[in-house]
Each structure stands twice: as structure tokens, then as C-alpha cells.
Amino acid sequence: MSTQQWVTVLGSTGSIGTSTLDVIALHPERFRVFALTAHRSRETLLAQCLTFQPRIAVLNAAEDGDWLRNELQTAGVDTLVETGIEAHNAAASDPCVDVVMAAIVGAAGLLPALAAAQSGKRVLLANKEALVMSGALFMQAVEKSGATLLPIDSEHNAMFQCLPNQHRGGLAQYGVTQLLLTASGGPFRGWQHDALGSVTPDQACAHPNWSMGRKISVDSATLMNKGLELIEACWLFDATPQQICVVVHPQSVIHSMVAYQDGSVLAQLGNPDMRTSIAYGLGWPERLDANVQVLDLFQVARLDFEPPDEGSFPCLKLARDAMQAGGTAPTILNASNEVAVAAFLEHGLAFTGIGDVVAAVLDQASVSDVDCLETVLEADLYARKLAQQYLAQRLGKWVC
Ligand code: NAD
Ligand code: MG
Q: Which of 60, 85, 156, 303 is deepest in the core (most CB within 10 A)?
């Protein structure tokens, strides 16, 4: 490919964002950075702007924007600094942009990712919460605009690689019988529910195989991440929850598999390094160097598989049931989980309380059909309020 592509990295200062810039830096002849966006991490964003000299940099708070503008001016870097939520959407949908990496964490990433999808970009989707919250609307937007949606989540990227080229619509037409979604089991694999009551945020964030942001690390420890990924896979591959089998595979070497009716099972293997799926998304349909260590199967030596323990880790079933219920149920699941994870990380909620909060909110909330984006955003807000009320009772204080 001869022409350079302009890339916006939403959430550039996070784990996926920095890995994306690592890969981009390997291929300066192919990619130029159009915009870098972040929430509050202004020092990291400054360093990235000095290296990549994007046209635009975005932070949420005006005072952070003033600081960054000043620093860049002093350094003689000609990057336009914008602030506020809308600026992320504009950076994702600007007509100059070819590729958008959607790597903001949580519900905050929905609108910018959707803006990229609506404006027909190549969307590299790491922000799984966007699909969990509004899968139907998101997929419709991709269809309508002609955007190219490439999954970056390692499991979905693996499935994408194991499915036929240009697959569209239901899996049965390709002879697919099952998607095998692998899970590491997280840092507490094998622990009983009672022992999990006293684990700390640092223990929960110490993932055995992957280095990730704190929210997804906690989700991995509760298995909610696998639940969110199950929902994500349903939307991406037009699958039902019954067509997806979660397989705990502690080595995280097989990133997921696709089973076919003739008995074949195709798998994608690699070292647990997100730069592989990021490079796949950036280069597709070509393959790019990602500077990832070659997989040494003799060192790996063995691959183990076991079923998930849904008794000790109830979040996976909560997610599967929410997808089955449909409508706004997955939005409610996602919002209550975000509030619960923040309460665990910052306000002393027990680890096992996360599943309790989500279950209580799903129990109490009324679910409606999703007809437009407003319905999704209202359900998100409503579930957050219910979760906060539940937490106020449980912890004896308000958290937000
Ligand atoms: P992270 O916490 O390391 O980074 C999050 C990024 O989002 C940061 O740049 C932060 O500044 C930005 N951000 C946070 N809140 C924001 C807001 N309100 N507005 C705008 N920007 C905001 O997270 P991460 O681990 O890089 O994960 C990013 C996304 O990718 C998540 O949805 C996660 O589930 C998904 N994902 C991550 C991994 C991984 O290995 N880290 C793997 C698969 C999927
Ligand atoms: Mg994943």
C-alpha cells in the first residue's frame, strides 16, 4: 500500500493506546497520527504529542487543555489542543481520518466509537463496552456507513482470523457450530467464593498473563470480562449466547477458536501481547510486523483447558442472562458493573460485592427495547443510579 493513512487513537494514554502507538511507530511510512485523545493523563499525552506530532490532542478538562497547549507551544509543536467530550467525537469522525482505534475504557468510549462507525472509518474496536451497551445500533451504524469493523479484543480478533474471509451474517451458512471463547481464569482461578471476600484491588489487578488497565483487570478477575466478551462476540459474529462456549485456558496462548461442522476446530495462537491484534487491525488484510516475541511452543510445553467456575464467579452467568434477556439488559449490566468496579477499586466494596451489585440492579431494573441511542443512554444513567442507591445502603455512604 502506498498512501499514508491518518489514524486517531481514542484513549491513547492507556494500555491499548500506548501499544497502538508502539505499532504505529514501527511503520511511519504507512501511518500518520491525526489525533490523540485522553481523559486526564496530560503528562503522558504531552510526551506522545512530542513524539508523534498529531494535528489534534484532546483532554476532557479545560485546565488540562490549557496546560498542554502551553507546554506544546513552549516546545514548538504545532498540535491543536481541544477539550471536552465532543472533541473526542470530532477527532473520531474528522473527514481526514482513515483509521480510528477505539480504546477509551468503559461507557465513556461509546459516543466517539459510534461517531467513527457512523462516519465510515476503519474502526479498530478495543472498547468492548460500546458493543455491550448498544450492539444493535452500533452494528447498524457500521452497515449503513460502510465502515470496516475489526475486533481488537484478542479473543474476537482470534475468532475473526479463524472465520472465513469477508464473513457476514449468521454463522451456520459457513458451517460454524460453535465459537470457543478462551479465558485465562484471572488471578483467582481455583479460589472458592468465600476466600474472595477479602482480596484487595492490587491482587485483583495482578493479572497472571496480560498487563492491562485497572477496570478490565478487575473484570478479568470477576469473569465479567468474559461475560462482556460473550456479548461482544454475539454482536460481532451474529451469534447466539448458546453458540458460544467459554473455555478456561490458563496459559492464554490460544486466543480463541472456531468449531466447524466437519469436526475441524481452528485456533489462533500467540504470546499474550495486544500488539498482535492491533497490528492485525492496522494492516488487515495484510500482515504487519508488531515487534512481538515469536511463540516458543517448547517453552509453553502444555496447554490446559477447564470449564469456568460459575459458582465462585457469578458475573459470567449474569452477562449471558442479560444478553438472552436482550433490550437494555446488557446496558444495565455494563453500567452497574462499572459503578461496582469503581466502588471496589476506590471505596472499599468487597470483591464479591461486584457481582451482588450487578445482580441486584438487574433484578430491580425494568428492561426496555432499544430503539434509539437515547434509550441506551437513559438505561445507562438509570442503572448507575440504582447501583449507587444499592451501594449507599450496603456501604453506608454515597459513591459516584
Ligand atoms: P486504560 O485504563 O489503560 O486506558 C483507558 C484510556 O481511556 C486512557 O487513555 C484514558 O485517558 C481514557 N479515558 C478514560 N476515561 C475517559 C473518559 N471519560 N473520556 C475520555 N477518555 C477516557 O484501559 P485499557 O486497558 O487500555 O482498555 C481500553 C479498552 O480496551 C477497554 O474497553 C478494555 O476493555 C479494552 N481492552 C483492553 C485490553 C488490554 O489488554 N488492556 C484488551 C482487550 C480489550
Ligand atoms: Mg479479551
A: 156
What is the Å distance from ligand 1's center to 119 Cα?
22
CA 76 to CA 389: how far, in whole Å? 49
Taking CA atoms only, the protein residue closest to ligand 1 atom 12 is 11
Query: Ligand 1 mean position to 92 CA, how many Å?
Result: 16
* Axis crossing angle, helix 15-26 with helix 275-283, rounded to the nearest 10: 60
Pinpoint the alpha helices (H) of 285-352: 297-300, 315-325, 329-346
- Res. 400 pLDDT band, cuts 50 70 90: low
- 21 Cβ below 6 A of ligand 1: no
Is the distance from the beta carbon of residue 153 to the nearest atom of ligand 1 less than 6 Å? yes
- Structure letter (DSSP) for residue 198: G
pTM of the entire predicted model: 0.97
Q: Per residue in 212-224, pLDDT tens?
A: 999 999 999 999 9
Question: 198 CA distance to ligand 2 centroid (A)?
Answer: 26
Name residue, grid cell 458460544: 244
Q: Which residues pair with 179 in a beta bridge?
A: 244, 258
Percent helix, percent strand, percent coil in the chain, to nearest 5: 50, 15, 35
Distances in Å between the Cα of 90 and the Cα atoms of 15, 36, 93, 137 are 22, 12, 5, 19
Closest ligand to residue 183's CA: 2
| Greatest Cα pair distance in the chain | 64
- C-alpha 216 to ligand 1 mean position (Å): 8
Report in angstroms the alpha-carbon separations of 6 from 54, 94, 97. 10, 10, 5
Strand order in the sheet with 148-151: 80-83, 56-59, 31-37, 5-10, 99-102, 122-125, 148-151
How would DSSP label each residue in 245-256? EEEE-TT--EEE
